[in-house]
Design brief:
This protein is mainly α. It has helices at 4-10, 23-37, 49-56, 60-72, 101-108, 113-134, 140-153, 156-173, 177-194, 201-219, 223-245; strands at 76-79, 85-88. The chain is globular, with a radius of gyration of 18 Å. The relative contact order is 0.13.
Length: 246
């Protein structure tokens, strides 16, 4: 995502105006969600400070404080010059020290996996049903088809990012701003765990078949099929994480 405009559009389901009293904290939380969701990948640039500040409705002074915290945590780096900006730093790759099953267990230390997965399923199934019932308006059908195509075309290393974008699009098109915000939060937690699980080609192929059936059900207005397909899809992710922990 090299262009700020395109990047900002992709971040629309996550970034929203913060409350005046907690501007710094809420802005930090939202940009952390962007990073954990993989909406801006390693080596890619965050939108310009002006655009981020306008989207979050905070001053650029506050935004720079947020970016400094992220830089201090080794999540982003700033570069000067014509092609400068704030760039996302890579996270440890699968198989690197600190990754894999041991890292997954470490990240699970303060997490109730069953609770997270249950909540994710409730939100996902609800969003799928709402999308099918109300019909994706204002170019929503085209956005869903484009997101589905992107998951199908993505190389394995990029698959989870595009998978996340597809699910975030469904959450956004549900018409519930609260559901969208809650889903972005829980999906960030799930992605944090999935980062420790190796990519399995057979699993990705199965996931893509479910994505196709899901989008078709939504576009046909079949709420029951959309909910059932999403429920099966969420069960697959849950089984993968539980299996890797066993």
């Amino acid at each position: 995502m090299a262009e700020d405009g395109g990047t900002a559009d992709a971040l629309a389901p996550v970034l929203r105006p913060v409350h005046a009293g907690n501007g710094f904290e809420e802005a930090l939380e939202q940009i952390l969600q962007v990073l954990r969701l993989g909406l801006v990948g390693p080596g890619e640039r965050l939108p310009a400070e002006r655009m981020l500040a306008e989207r979050l409705r905070i001053s650029r002074v506050v935004l720079r404080e947020v970016l400094k915290v992220l830089a201090d945590q080794g999540l982003v780096t700033s570069r000067r010059g014509r092609y400068g900006g704030t760039f996302v730093l890579p996270r440890p790759a699968a198989g690197a020290p600190g990754s894999g099953r041991a890292e997954l267990r470490r990240r699970m230390a303060d997490t109730d996996l069953d609770d997270v997965l249950r909540f994710r399923e409730v939100l996902e199934v609800g969003a799928a049903g709402l999308c099918a019932q109300r019909g994706p308006a204002d170019g929503g059908a085209e956005r869903l088809r484009a997101a589905l195509t992107a998951t199908g075309d993505a190389p394995p290393a990029e698959y989870r990012r595009h998978d996340t974008l597809l699910h975030l699009t469904l959450a956004e098109l549900s018409g519930s701003a609260t559901l969208r915000a809650q889903y972005a939060s829980v999906r960030a937690r799930v992605n944090d765990l999935l980062d420790c699980v190796p990519l399995l080609v057979r699993n990705l192929e199965h996931s893509q078949r479910q994505h196709t059936a899901l989008v078709e059900a939504v576009l046909q207005g079949d709420a029951d099929a959309a909910r059932e397909t999403m429920r099966e899809h969420c069960s697959g992710t849950a089984a993968l994480l539980r299996g890797f922990l066993s």
